[in-house]
Amino acid sequence: MYTARIVVLVIALLAGGVAAYLVSGSDYRSRPTEPVAQIQTVEVLVAKADIGLGQSVSPENLEWQTWPAATASNNFIRRSERPDATTQIAGSIARAPFIAGEPIREPKLVKANGSGFMAAILPVGMRAVSTEISPETGAGGFILPNDRVDVILSRREKDSGRANAVDVVHSDIILPNIRVLAIDQAPKEKDGQNAVVGKTVTLELRPEQAETLARARQTGTLSLALRSIADVNMVENTTDDQVRKRGQSIDVVRYGIQSSTTTQK
User: Fold this and answer.
1) Average pLDDT, integer, range 154-180
2) Per the confidence metrics, is the pTM higher than 0.70?
3) What is the dihedral of CA 95, 96, 101, 105, to 10 degrees?
4) All domains in the chain, ordered by first residue
5) CB of 236 within 8 A of CB of 177?
6) What is the DSSP string of 125-172?
7) Residue 220: which pLDDT band, with cuts at 50, 70 and 90?
8) At 233, phi and psi to the nearest 5?
9) Of 130, 174, 181, 167, which Cα lies nearest the Cα of 151?
């Protein structure tokens, strides 16, 4: 009789445990799950591999990449808005380098439309003008495309104020903070290259600066002074008007007699 009671008690306890487990599982399953926040994404056109300055872009250089919509700039090309962008952009020329994975932005591209590379990358209103250089006048060959330079004019004159006239050299910065477009016919540097010893440099100039350079070439020797990359946005002490005036009035020495030639606009 005592054993039977123990058996009944054990069975009752087991039944209660099973019931409690079933009830707790039912409550867990009936409990509403919290919604997981979904990040909105968009497909953005990016560079599949590095695209160098002056390189013609092909569809193989591009791919669509998923980006969070909150961080995708309005300047990015989105697949939802331009699904045929890869073919539309094909043939464009890179005015600035792209690194792999960088979103494609059209201000950094230009359609050549049959023009040469140099005409395609020139900003509106600017001119590409070439002049001769040497290792001595071109910072030893350490000037590379896209660097900034000061153009210096040096001219030798006779000092007529002395009994024994001696040559006096005058040097002036006639064009400050000028962008270098190319060295010889190389508009971009090769991988790992840190020096280009060339004979011709092509500079990006405004029309009035191009005139100043052309006049200066006839009156003396031109040299290029390489600027620090930190000085690119520095405001020059010399205004554009002062540079133009200095470039339009050039001292010319013929047979030891100095004269001043001024070009009027």
Assistant:
1) 79
2) no
3) -50
4) 41-120 (3.90.1210.10), 122-255 (no CATH)
5) yes
6) T-EEEEEE--TTTTGGGT--TT-EEEEEEEEEEE-TTSSS--EEEEEE
7) confident
8) -95, 15
9) 174
